[in-house]
Amino acid sequence: MRPRRESGQASVELLGGAVVVLLTGLVGLGLLGAGYAAVMADHAAEAAALAALKGGSPQAAAREAVPAWPDSALDVSQHGDRITVTLRAPSPLRSLRRRLSFKSSVALPARSDTP
């Protein structure tokens, strides 16, 4: 016979292990989303700079460069010859989504009117 105080120990350990696996998965997804957002911020900034050099809209080009991103998670600003794109990372946790943002800036080259 087993003592009563040990009954259910395996269930508690299984539940604890499941929580650890779930939290590890959420952290992993958060890291993947953050890395993806960093790369896509650079990509969007480059597209915005190319559009600005061609006389197009940097905001529209940046949004087209990251089509799967929500419009509310992407900000494009231009101050003089510098274009900055801010992209908030996707995350299953709302509090992390607000805090994880990545900025990428591109300085436009000086235009010369003479060839």
Mind explaining what this structure looks like?
The structure is a single chain. With 115 residues, the chain is of the alpha+beta class. It has one domain: Pantoate--beta-alanine Ligase, Chain: A,domain 2, CATH 3.30.1300. Helix content is 51%, strand content 17%. The chain has a 3-stranded antiparallel β-sheet. A hairpin with a 2-residue loop joins strand 1 and strand 2. The protein is rod-shaped and about 85 Å long. The relative contact order is 0.16.
Topology summary:
Layout: H1 9-53, H2 58-65, E1 74-79, E2 82-88, H3 94-99, E3 101-107
Antiparallel strand pairs: 1-2, 2-3
Helix pairs in contact: 1-2
List its traits.
115 residues; alpha+beta; rod-shaped; 3-stranded antiparallel β-sheet; 3 strands; Pantoate--beta-alanine Ligase, Chain: A,domain 2; 3 helices
Summarize the structure.
It is built from three helices and three strands; from the N terminus they run ααββαβ. With 115 residues, the chain is of the alpha+beta class.
Order of helices and strands: HHEEHE
**Silhouette:** rod-shaped
Please give the count of helices: 3
Q: Poorly predicted ranges (pLDDT <50, ≥5 residues)?
A: none
